[in-house]
Amino acid sequence: MKKHNFSAGPAILPQPVFEQAAEAVRDFNGMGLSLLEISHRSPQFTAVLDEAQVLVRDLLGLSDAYEVLFLQGGASSQFFMTAMNLLDEKGKGGYVDTGSWSAKAIKEAQAFGPVEVVASSKASNYNAIPKGYPIPDGLTYLHITTNNTIFGTQYKALPETATRLVADMSSDIFSKPVDTERFDLIYAGAQKNMGPAGVTLVIVRKDALGKVGRHIPTMLDYRTHIKKGSSFNTPPVFPIYVSMLTLRWVKANGGLKAMQARNEAKAKLMYEAIDSNPLFDGTVAAAEDRSVMNATFNLIEGREDLFAPFLELCEEAGCSGVKGHRSVGGFRASLYNAMDLESVQVLADVMHAFTEKYA
Amino acid sequence: MKKHNFSAGPAILPQPVFEQAAEAVRDFNGMGLSLLEISHRSPQFTAVLDEAQVLVRDLLGLSDAYEVLFLQGGASSQFFMTAMNLLDEKGKGGYVDTGSWSAKAIKEAQAFGPVEVVASSKASNYNAIPKGYPIPDGLTYLHITTNNTIFGTQYKALPETATRLVADMSSDIFSKPVDTERFDLIYAGAQKNMGPAGVTLVIVRKDALGKVGRHIPTMLDYRTHIKKGSSFNTPPVFPIYVSMLTLRWVKANGGLKAMQARNEAKAKLMYEAIDSNPLFDGTVAAAEDRSVMNATFNLIEGREDLFAPFLELCEEAGCSGVKGHRSVGGFRASLYNAMDLESVQVLADVMHAFTEKYA
Ligand SMILES: Cc1ncc(COP(=O)(O)O)c(C=O)c1O
Ligand SMILES: Cc1ncc(COP(=O)(O)O)c(C=O)c1O
Ligand SMILES: [Mg+2]
Ligand SMILES: [Mg+2]
Ligand SMILES: [Mg+2]
Ligand SMILES: [Mg+2]
């Protein structure tokens, strides 16, 4: 049976990427060696790293002011590394609190300098993206989480400010075009739209660095990795290779504008299935804040007893990963780049069939 | 043609591990999904993580005093993380300087507390393991690099001291039994004997932690990862899986005593080929310090012109990765667990044939 993988991350990647990655583990480019056993300084792997960097630049339209890094440690390491490299007692980091990941970023930053939470949707259990709040002058940066994987909200427009942004784009990078010039730094754990777990993308504006006085361990200083082209030490070879293959697929399939069209069509189908269905409710307050990547929904009040039967029917139809994040419950259908519209239709049909039976 | 991979790291892994890893990228355990697209919190992956931890404990005979962590960032991140978590101004870290990696560990530690280099072989270009030096009392720990990947030296006996050791075992972990009770902390980048690049093993004695006063970012505090079983955030799924497969292979092939016998036989063959050959010289001063993992050698003085022709003959015979580290030149044959004696014989034969032609 064909599987439809709605997992929030690690998540679906294009099928041809899995095929090529499996082959590279057996024999990389006809070398007679596995990709896993060759030197990260071999011409064969440095070509991969170069191509991955060029694809990131190309797809996002990055100017020369930016550097592209492939690091380790996940987006969670960027929560503190951004502040460690950009913030000190002379400055102030502004943060918008739109979910658990934003909250962790705020917590980690506080150790490195003054932090001001300029807006938060915490009081409404993060069911909206705050809008219309004043943004103070003189912030070192304004940190946002562009897509809130757990709560199913997403920025459709960037905050209006002259201050440069720092953004956690873990769950919507490469899903649509971005005005990258607005950012000092963008980071993303690869394991949604970009690749498998084990590599973290960092895009940083060179002129934002070197302004804090503190000691930074060599491995935590972005400048180390800029100078050494992400090869100061052994980079995560296989995760980078699979990311490169995935970005090649994005480009071959029309780039970010094409991804956006594809993703919006899937989201439309998914939210229509939720809204039209009498057994299910979306969790996000306003339609405009709904994530194109992660559609979160619940059973209507009083029918929570149908939780397990619904997940069972999903599994029977080959739809996996539909369970919501353990911290919020309910359901979540993640609709990353690699997912087809047909798979979303399968889930919509399951919801419909379920309602025929139980409503 | 069969390839004989003498690369220093990323390095050769057992052939069946490559086969199983490739299959898991296509379809993991018959799930109909790639290992790369499943949640790190799925029962299928947590079983992998558990088995990997149990194998590490089992193979090394770890007591309950120790925790086993699978982290990101490479051994290079451990250079500072060890000191950040264990050392402060009230203590003193002792270091033995036996090569470039030791020197980096010393440099990174200095930011976190007093550091004393108790012995160094730097003056002789790191061609020996220091012995018979006094070790001061009252050290917080004594840091050693058990195998010096670049210079081809290896500790055959641990320093005599009651102080607990901290060790970089990146290039000889799982190659022989270790008296683990002597250590407060052991770390190793996976990409030699344990797995592919992208995961770092840390073994830490619980009672060594929590003694420094400084703020430690959540992701850099070993206690975070202990509490969350290496899943505080998304772990490097595929590198951990391949490491688990490799450790299974080590166990199925007799464990660390069997690895030791196997590795010593290969090293004996390799060093005999070097010593008996009039064109080549070993680089390590005393036979007892020679690494069982990385055999370093040079052309004899005056015949450096033969450098390129020798590497060419190696490649023709399928022997790859024989070039020495870019910082020292010469040659290096790495003989990790997964390498067969037959492959070492092929290299020895190449050296012999080369000498027949040129000596
Ligand atoms: C928006 C966002 N930020 C951060 C993270 C944490 O990423 P990592 O597990 O790579 O540390 C996640 C993980 O799902 C996420 O969705
Ligand atoms: C002994 C030793 N320590 C540390 C390192 C650095 O490891 P990593 O590249 O994982 O940071 C290496 C790499 O070869 C090594 O051989
Ligand atoms: Mg969230
Ligand atoms: Mg509805
Ligand atoms: Mg060395
Ligand atoms: Mg000789």
How is this structure best described in words?
The structure is a homodimer of 359-residue chains. Chain A has 359 residues and is of the alpha/beta class. Chain A has 2 domains: 15-252, Type I PLP-dependent aspartate aminotransferase-like (Major domain) (Aspartate Aminotransferase, domain 2, 3-Layer(aba) Sandwich); 255-358, Aspartate Aminotransferase, domain 1, CATH 3.90.1150. Chain A contains 9 helices and 14 strands. Chain A has helices at 15-26, 43-60, 74-86, 100-109, 222-227, 237-252, 255-276, 307-316, 341-358, and strands spanning 4-5, 66-71, 93-97, 115-120, 141-145, 147-148, 153-154, 165-168, 183-189, 200-205, 280-282, 294-299, 319-320, 331-334. In chain A, the strands form 4 sheets. The first copy, chain A, has a 7-stranded mixed sheet, sandwiched between helices. A 3-stranded antiparallel sheet of chain A has the order 11-12-14, with helices on one face. A two-stranded parallel sheet of chain A has the order 1-13. In chain A, strand 3, helix 4 (100-109) and strand 4 (115-120) form a beta-alpha-beta unit. In chain A, helix 1 (15-26) runs antiparallel to helix 6, helix 2 (43-60) crosses helix 6 and helix 7 packs parallel to helix 9 (341-358). Chain A is globular, with a radius of gyration of 21 Å. Chain A starts with a strand and ends with a helix. The model of chain A has no long low-confidence stretch (mean pLDDT 98). The interface between A and B is large, with 65 and 66 residues. The complex binds pyridoxal-5'-phosphate (PLP) (2 copies) and magnesium ion (4 copies). Residues 99-101, 148-151 of chain B line the site of one magnesium ion.
